[in-house]
Design brief:
This protein is an all-alpha fold and 180 residues long. The chain is 78% helix and 0% strand. The longest helix has 28 residues.
Length: 180
C-alpha cells in the first residue's frame, strides 16, 4: 500500500478511506478491468466480419493486454488474493465461456467451423488453453513470449475446428497480416 500511495502521490490514509485493505483495492481494479474487457469483446463481436475474424481480433486485443501484464498475475491472484481471483473465475466461467460458445455457434452457422463440434466442450478447452499459456511451469518467461504462445495456441485451436472454407479464410487473414 505504501508503493501505491507513493505512485498516486497521496497518503495511505486517503486510500483506506475508500478501500478496506489491499484485497479490496485489488478486487475493485479487477472488476474494473473485467468490465472493460466485456465492452471490448462486445465491440469486437459487433465489428467483426465473421467468427474467425472475431477470434483473431480478440486475440490481437488480448495480446496488447498481455504485453502490459506481469506474467505471474494469475498465479499471484490465485495464491494471495482470493476475492479478486474469484471475480476473474466468475468472469471466465460466465462471460468468456459464453463469448467463445457464441463464436463457435456463429462459425458453425456460417459454415466456417465444422458442424459436428461439441460447442460447450470446445469453449472450455479454448479457455483452458489461454490459461495454460500463462503457466510459468509449462511456458517459462525466459524461454517463451506470452503473446507468441497465446497466438500459437489460438491458431492450433482454429485449425482444429474450421471447415475448408474456414481454413482458406484463416490463411487469407494470415497473408494480409504478413503483408502489413
Amino acid at each position: 500500500m505504501d508503493d501505491i500511495a507513493n505512485k498516486l502521490g497521496m497518503s495511505k490514509k486517503t486510500i483506506y478511506q475508500y478501500y478496506e485493505d489491499k484485497n479490496a483495492l485489488l478486487s475493485s481494479l479487477v472488476m474494473m478491468e473485467l468490465k472493460s474487457q466485456t465492452k471490448e469483446m462486445a465491440d469486437i463481436r459487433k465489428n467483426s466480419e465473421n467468427a474467425i475474424d472475431e477470434m483473431l481480433q480478440s486475440m490481437s486485443c488480448m495480446s496488447k493486454n498481455f504485453s502490459k501484464m506481469n506474467p505471474t498475475l494469475f498465479f499471484d491472484l490465485q495464491k494471495y488474493h482470493a476475492s479478486a481471483w474469484n471475480h476473474f473465475k466468475n468472469f471466465k466461467e460466465k462471460v468468456l465461456t459464453e463469448f467463445v460458445e457464441e463464436n463457435l455457434r456463429r462459425g458453425i452457422k456460417n459454415e466456417l467451423y465444422r458442424k459436428d463440434l461439441k460447442v460447450r466442450i470446445l469453449a472450455r478447452l479454448r479457455l483452458e488453453e489461454v490459461e495454460l499459456g500463462f503457466n510459468t511451469t509449462t511456458f517459462s518467461h525466459e524461454q517463451f513470449n506470452i503473446s507468441e504462445v497465446q497466438l500459437s495456441l489460438l491458431e492450433h485451436f482454429l485449425y482444429g475446428v474450421v471447415t475448408l472454407k474456414g481454413y482458406k479464410l484463416i490463411n487469407k487473414y494470415k497473408q494480409v497480416h504478413d503483408e502489413e
